[in-house]
């Protein structure tokens, strides 16, 4: 079975596809027809790889965390996506898509963002490559994420408030889709995770797959073998996890573990653990698992980390879950917080709250002493200092 890529209609098993209003067909079809040829061309790869190296700062280190390894009595390597320019893996995708948009002849970029991290990455890529950038954001999120709003504005992006519904991410998605329908010729919609209609999940996974490509090369150099025993990543929509798993999903000896946000607990009514709580449905243009009521209303998710606070999961991951190719754990807010402080004290690295969910797997699963365990440290903790400060004071 092929886990890595969808079929020609964008399906990973029963998940995926493109469920979109008819007025979006031209935009999505243009992408479906062209994305592979463009991003696999030598010309594109030359420019993209050069920017990843000299602008983003890749390859990111694969760091053997000695102190953490001693504590958990296993061999732990951290893939340091936190060291990327703008502080997380999201720039890998944002740069790739903005480059792709240029080659499609677009001069205007739209995006939507919840916590603001994807908005900042997209605004950064647009500043660098000289494209107009409009970021839709829920009115409530604009208030909650003031520093990232300031960054986007400083980078030259226009931040537009979504004022309908719950005034959060899903309303921003609706505004972005409306914009795209109205501006099909000039505009590309940069989706920030492995979600959305085909070809977005595959497109984003390919841009993030650099993570596992580097892990293979770096692990070979450090240990003599390119496959670890385990790869672990947190899953919101699933882009850092897709990148971390990509080159390992067909390697049977590599075990794959995904960490979802349990929030206050899977049964608390305040959770974002999609594979535990989700059922089959259509969200943001693709068929996947999502948290919904019996009559199909999306349930508001909750997580302490804004980046995991999403009611769905990409079709790539839904398929890995259904086929039992990956093992899913749900990590609660307090468990993630504890691991953020633990990594900081043991290794001098302040992780993002999202990434701390992946670290918390170390408490959930027993590893052998000689196991090579690679954890994706998807981002740095600067953006989460307010939450960490509250914890220090309490
Ligand atoms: C956005 C974000 C995530 C969650 O998004 P995925 O698409 O699931 O990777 C995880 N970690 C960090 C640091 C983020 O900014």
TrEMBL record:
Keyword Lyase: yes
Pathway: Amino-acid biosynthesis; L-tryptophan biosynthesis; L-tryptophan from chorismate: step 5/5
Cofactors required: pyridoxal 5'-phosphate
UniProt keyword terms in alphabetical order: Amino-acid biosynthesis, Aromatic amino acid biosynthesis, Lyase, Pyridoxal phosphate, Tryptophan biosynthesis
Gene3D superfamilies reported for this sequence: 3.40.50.1100
Enzyme class: lyase
CDD domains on file: Trp-synth_B
Enzyme Commission number(s) of this protein: 4.2.1.20
Catalytic activity: (1S,2R)-1-C-(indol-3-yl)glycerol 3-phosphate + L-serine = D-glyceraldehyde 3-phosphate + L-tryptophan + H2O
InterPro entries recorded: Trp_synth_b_CS, Trp_synth_beta, Trp_synth_beta/beta-like, TrpB-like_PALP, TrpB-like_PALP_sf
UniProt KW Acyltransferase keyword: no
GO-annotated molecular function: tryptophan synthase activity
SUPFAM superfamilies for this protein: Tryptophan synthase beta subunit-like PLP-dependent enzymes (SSF53686)
All copies of domain Tryptophan synthase beta chain-like PALP, residue ranges: 58-379
Domain of life: Bacteria
Modified positions (N6-(pyridoxal phosphate)lysine) in chain numbering: 90
Family per record: Belongs to the TrpB family.
Function: The beta subunit is responsible for the synthesis of L-tryptophan from indole and L-serine.
PANTHER family the record matches: TRYPTOPHAN SYNTHASE, TRYPTOPHAN SYNTHASE-RELATED
Quaternary organization: Tetramer of two alpha and two beta chains.
NCBIfam families attached to this UniProt entry: trpB
Protein name in UniProt: Tryptophan synthase beta chain
Species the sequence originates in: Chryseobacterium candidae
